[in-house]
Amino acid sequence: MIPDVDPLSAGRAGLPADGSLAIVGNAPGAGACGAAIDAADSVVRFNNAPGFGGGTGHRVTHLALVNRGGQTREWLADRRFLERPVVRAARAFILPFPMLPAEHNVPEPICWTRELLALLRPLGRPVHLLPEALHQQARTLLDTGAAGPPNPSTGFLVTLALLLGRPAGARPAQAYGFGFAGWPGHPWAAERAWFAQAEAAGRLDVHPPSPTER
After folding, report:
1. Three-state SS at 141
2. Is 182 helix (H, G, I), strand (E, B) or coil?
3. What is the dihedral of CA 48, 159, 171, 10, to 10 degrees?
4. Cβ atoms of residues 17 and 4 within 8 Å
5. Rounded Cα–Cα distance for residues 77 and 100 (Å)
6. What is the rounded CA–CA span in Å between residue 163 and residue 199?
7. Positive or negative: CA dihedral 175, 179, 185, 190
8. In angstroms, what CA-CA distances link 28 with 55, 64, 149, 192?
9. Are strands 62-64 and 92-95 parallel, antiparallel or unpaired?
10. Closest CA to 8 of 121, 106, 99, 128
């Protein structure tokens, strides 16, 4: 187990409390934003980070890696995963899901947290797990009264955690490449509405993808 595994917080994660923050989603058509992203004190990216090294800039301080499901299983089977440029460049990692107890991860495993931690261990960099309490808060914020609890996206969970960890007077975080589309199980409309509310409150500046490039 990596010793520095803990819930995400500004101080422990190495995020300057009032520093500039760029949160870079994976939607195509982010536009010519690379220079602005690279100028931020902290740059958070997600999973395979399309655009990294090109249109969305060359810096990453924190890389969020989904730790449940088929995408994680593919990474674990990739012998060269640790050689990926975005993985090599990241100073810390964020895993968005709490670790499931072993008895809850059968008969078909969905949680690969232990294996992902073991894979990342040779890098010797901090790993931050988002706690269940954050997931509960996210589900409450996104609840529209539809059948069943909402299933927040990794982008929403990490953005929520980052904003909760910033002082009220901090400059707005900058969100790029969030298209609010993809796997149909996520409540995209509710997430888009929350981002708009955060922007109206001065906590976030949203730079939407170009409609012609999505």
Report:
1. helix
2. coil
3. -90
4. no
5. 21
6. 11
7. positive
8. 10, 18, 28, 16
9. parallel
10. 128
- Give pTM, 2 decimals: 0.91
Q: What is the largest CA-CA distance in the chain?
A: 47
Q: Compute the distance between CA of residue 213 and CA of residue 88 in angstroms, rounded to an integer.
A: 29
214 pLDDT band (50/70/90 cuts)?
A: very low
* Closest among 123, 124, 127 to 113, alpha carbons compared: 127
**Residue 23: which H helix or E strand, with range?**
strand 21-24
Contact 190, 150 (CB under 8 A): yes
Q: Which residues contact 35 (CB under 8 A, 6 or more apart)?
A: 57
Residue 202 reports pLDDT greater than 60: yes
- Residues 202 and 170: beta-carbon distance below 8 Å: no
CA triple 167-171-174, angle to 5 deg: 115
Beta-bridge mates of residue 176: 24, 207
- The pair of structure tokens assigned to 137 is 């808060």
Listed in sequence order, the residues at least 6 apart from 18 whose beta carbon sits closer than 8 Å to its beta carbon are 166, 167, 169, 170, 171
Q: Please count the CA atoms within 13 angstroms of the CA of 180 that sit on its side-chain side.
A: 16
Q: How confident is the model at residue 18 (pLDDT cuts 50, 70, 90)?
A: confident
Give every CB contact of residue 29 below 8 A, 6+ residues apart in sequence: 179, 209, 210, 211, 212, 213, 214
Q: Is 20 exposed, middle or buried (0-12, 13-18, 19+ CB in 10 A)?
A: middle
